[in-house]
TrEMBL record, chain A:
Organism classification: Bacteria, Pseudomonadati, Bacteroidota, Flavobacteriia, Flavobacteriales
Domain 2Fe-2S ferredoxin-type: 2-78
Pfam families linked to this entry: Fer2 (PF00111), Fer2_2 (PF01799)
Species whose genome carries this gene: Arenibacter echinorum
Name of protein: Isoquinoline 1-oxidoreductase alpha subunit
Keywords: 2Fe-2S, Iron, Iron-sulfur, Metal-binding, Oxidoreductase
TrEMBL record, chain B:
Segments forming domain Aldehyde oxidase/xanthine dehydrogenase a/b hammerhead: 210-309
Superkingdom field: Bacteria
SMART domains linked: Ald_Xan_dh_C
GO molecular function: oxidoreductase activity
Name this protein carries in UniProt: Isoquinoline 1-oxidoreductase beta subunit
Amino acid sequence: MPKYEINVNGVSKNVDVAEDTPLLWVLRDHLDLVGTKYGCGIAQCGACTVHLDGIAVRSCSLPIASVGGQQITTIEGLSENGDHPVQLAWKEVDVPQCGYCQAGQIMTASAFLDNNPNPTSDEIKTAMHGNICRCASYTRIHKAVEIAATKIG
Amino acid sequence: MSTSSITFNRRAFIRTSSLASGGLLIGFNLFTACKPKVQPPVDISQLNFNDFNAFIKIADNGAVTLFSPNPEIGQGVKTAMPMLIAEELDVAWKNVYVQQGILDTENYTRQLAGGSQSIRLGWEPLRQTGATARQMLVNAAAAKWGVDPSECTTSEGVITNAKGETLGYGDVVREAAALEVPENVTLKEPKNFKVIGTDAPNVDIDKIITGKPLFGLDYKVEGMVYASVLRPPAFGKILDSYDDTKAKAMPGVLDVIRIGEKAKELSKEGVGNWTVAMGKSDKVVVIAKTTWEALKAKEALSATWVDDSTLESTEFQDKQLLGLLDGKEFQTLRKDGDIIKAFSQADKILERTYESPFLPHNCMEPMNFFANITDEKIHLVGPVQTPEFAATAVAGMLGRDVKDVHLEMTRMGGGFGRRLYGDFVYEVAEIADAIKKPVKLVFSREDDMTAGTYRPAIKYRIKASIKNGQVTGYQLKEAAIGGNMYGLIPNFFPAGAIENYQVDVANYQSNITTGAWRAPYTNFLAFAEQSFFDELAETMEVDRIQLRLDLLEKVKGTTDERIQYSPERMQNVIKVAVDKSGWGKKRDGVFQGFAAYYCHNSHVAEVADVEIENGMPVVKKVTCVVDCGIVVNPLGAKNQIEGGVIDGVGHAMYGDFTFMDGQPQSQNYDKYRLIRMGEIPVVESHLIQNDLAPTGLGEPTLPPAGAAVANALKAATGNRFTQQPFSKYPELMQVPTKAIIG
């Protein structure tokens, strides 16, 4: 099987996997970074969201062969001590119910706020529309993104 | 998910033990958790420590660990149940460490998540336990000081005597462990609560936001392999043969096996509730080194299937259910007076039929489970709402003693009823037993959506008679797939309010597996009934709120023990909802809909506000008023209310799941619409303050939401929605020109 050298959370990692293996499963099964979640496998729910050179991408539909030397950031690497403004806002608002989708929500929100630190309410809704929360913690996700924006912007 | 009341001794059984490492371990059972057949022991000294299903651990340094006994599915019990103990133990919540307890299969059956009952049934025993522990610590301190325990007070883990001397719990915990367990401890008055009623964030918040392993899908042990299961492509088909040549040649694939024999034995023996998707068929399992390799190789399997029973389509099922409603074969669940007479003497009759589709649960974490089976031990780890049930069934299936089973519960990425059924546990147990390796079974999203235990399609027909401006008769007919409404549901409102009242049910036994789905039956019954009352008020030309209040007035003072909803509490939530939502105050372009419902022992009223955007009605806000007694964790409660309302709105608007020749027509989120961020209403929640014992909150805010929205859509469009999901009927969403102008 082909070997790939990828950069995850600032660390270079070597993996030996088939070229069509989605980044999601490389992270979860090969690198033990299980914070990134499997939800649908077809880029419809956002549970698997990670950053690729700062851009939010759905890792379930991203073959390892297409990653190259781009910087991958997962929920485990978003901040050293869980103190990224988005994480702190999630805690302040007590967003999660079951919590399963929240890593993906946080990764979508943090990449969005990097590009748009002063979003309108509608812009938040549009940005977060691709992430499903089955517990419907949406109102708190929205509020947490607003709070994080005040700290970033 | 029975909501029937359970008779239980209100005292929790408690036993203490010194820890080898120092400190005190207090074991207690939630007596509510005992199976009916288990008699409370006369002499608790005869109990072994493993007869208890929850624990308080107090270390020498005063650190307090509470083991939460019930599974956490997002409903917040891992936070709220320990809060009850901490309150009476009198420790600061911030100093408490909460751990998920493990399963004790010996004596308990209530170690489950379902029916919104964890807090209601844990209310007395959990507080009793905390209070007993506190009293033992006080007694130990008093003995040390040589004073009477009544002279001592406690606060935040510190005991103080009349002279102002203090001892921490950790200072006396060794002595306390040797003392007799006191009886008849006094519980706090609600006004003295320090923990209950305060906002406690999710106990797992730090792990969730940093991506730490918490869920079943995250569980991993050395040498673990992964399993992906090929199940029949349609309900009604069973496996004939398969070819695994291609799959076996794929990277990472370790083996391909056939399972099903053991599960079928289980089914024959009647062990367990066999509402298991595709349980009749054998299945083909790919064992691989990684999840992806297992999922991918499954796609490379080729199999032939034979028809075992009717391959049903939605159209076929609709005909079956409507045929039942039109027929005469019903079971009567409640009958008051004489509805035939009432209907024959009526001035007016209103009759409507309401229809709902199947719904998958769609937990965000797909079904999965870990098993490692050796001659010594059956090790099971993962997300299941009914751990005790699963453990017993697995032991039975494998011909093993249930004592061999060690089941660990993980935090669940949603439950909604799907994880009440242990099909995935039986599957992984059969796999692990065959391959003799630690193995994790993982469902793909497609597996999860197509091998479901769905919310059954249900049709309700409601008929009411009106005579001299009064509702004189009410008949509710239910035609459902699988089973019918259960427990006290036939005695919910308007039972007791209308002289001639009857509930009749009939069911069609489909081969499509069905089961509980958040607020079983009431999740759609509330829509039918509360839509009907709205239309009834229109037909009678009376105020729709007043009609409900007047009917509730007639229930007051009832001696019918089957009626457990409170007309007073229901009237109250209605009045508060009217007040808080600005009901009846005309606002341009805002159309309101009302619904009120009682289930899971809680009373809820909701008002939906619909506005017109781009010519289409949009649900902008829902005001939700809940009376669930004392609120243990207001922050968690608000989360449950918001989630329940939005879930209710979402599924009423978009939830659709059809079958063609036995095959689900939606297999993933590209064809199954769940409500998303851009579609949610603002949810304004109001909790009624009182000192009544807490009742359920995980489910009761969901059922009325669909009716509140339908009634608001009627106000906005002039059209009545009688079928869910509403989005399937865009022609009814057309807004008349005058409404747009407002």
